[in-house]
Amino acid sequence: MSSPLRKICAVTGTRADYGILSGLLRSIEEDEDLILQLVAACMHLSPEFGLTYKCIEEDGFTVDKKIEMLLSSDTSVGVAKAIGLGIIGFSEALEELSPDILIVQGDRFEMLAAAVAAMCLRIPIAHIHGGEATEGVIDEPIRHAITKMSHIHFVTTDVYRKKVIQLGESPDSVFNVGALGVYNAKNLELYNREKIQEMLGLEFGPYNFVITFHPVTLEKSSTRDQFANLLLALSFMKNTKFIFTKPNADMEGRVIIDMIDDFVSENPTIATSSVSLGTVPYLSLLQFVDGVIGNSSSGIIEAPTFKIGTVNIGDRQRGRVKADSVIDCPAVPIAILSAITQILKDVGFKEKLKTMKNPYEGGDTIGDIVSILKKVDLSNILKKTFYEVDICV
Description:
By secondary structure, the protein is of the alpha/beta class. The chain has helices at residues 15-30, 53-58, 76-97, 109-120, 139-149, 158-166, 180-187, 193-200, 223-235, 253-266, 279-286, 297-301, 333-345, 347-355, 365-375; strands spanning 6-12, 34-41, 65-67, 101-105, 125-128, 152-155, 174-176, 207-212, 240-245, 271-274, 291-294, 309-313, 326-329.
């Protein structure tokens, strides 16, 4: 008698995380031993952010459940209330779907809500991107909290594998598979230069940069001040085009969105913006720019694959493993300009890029994850033992 098919439920809250997951979702859906269940939440259901659950359906996936949880607010109270609404919605959805494994990715608040609900319902959780560090933002404790609620860990480097184990997780449950975003960059069919320019409505200039900046929830200076300093630095750049990608629904996110809109409105010939480009357009764009500026994980994880520089501003990504292409700098205009100049003019830096290896590159990331999801023993997986690591104090 054959074993029943294993139901794998994945949560997506933004177009960005969906883009990273989409290849994995397709592989799960096509596997004869697995059944894919898909839950869309948060930004996917917001008209303000483009009702992007429709993009999932246009790709041929069935959205099994939609979780309304995002308030029209980006305050700390608004985010806390959204987590509460998310727990209620995910609890009801997961009880009905009754998956064998729930997949959550990263460190956003909707993933925390899904993990809390699954934990209470005794559903095993597989967490992607655990063990990483973003010491300047609230995502840091969210990520580690999800790790402790999870039972299967798909990490992206050996450093992060060791950190998850240090949190008390059994080494047998922690798998270094590399980053899905890097796998996508190396395996997806990307667009050519002409198509990207047409999509952006902007012709590339002599120099071009992608700008992605997210709120800085745990830093002393405000998000507004930091982003204003970044825009001031950009105003000194000559012969340069800027492509802004807007932040997610986080605390103070709308501050950045308004400032981007004002900058693009005042500089329509050199700047454009997008709520979310989508995975293939974004990765395609990275082929043709000189670098990435901001404080997003994409500048740390995906950008090095394209042998381009990253100006990483402030402490949001402090603690992450970084390639040699990443230049850290404070949110001060002169420091930002100096880092940009290094990317454009430093011959030694450019030579270093040619032989640089992306530390987030794995092997067959999707194949490895699917294989583990199929084979992992679920019979006693919920009863975790805290794994003791010898630490000299």
